[in-house]
What does this fold into?
Amino acid sequence: METDTDLLLTIGIVLLVLSIPSLLSAWVESRAPRIGAIMVIAALGLIIAALVIKPGGYAFNQVPGVMIGVVARLFQ
It folds into this structure.
């Protein structure tokens, strides 16, 4: 079974972006950012897994194209 590293990278980046409001909300309300921290850890795990599994990794300028490709596959 082949791992889809593009999908792992895309989900990781989206999850990382979605964790920001949770982290900010917890910070403003002076409470522990439990859900936000879990989301960040999961996102970083997915991103690191994608970078390690793909031979040669990803260059920074490849990331937008990879994300667009994953979204395009979603609508095929």
The chain has a mean pLDDT of 93.
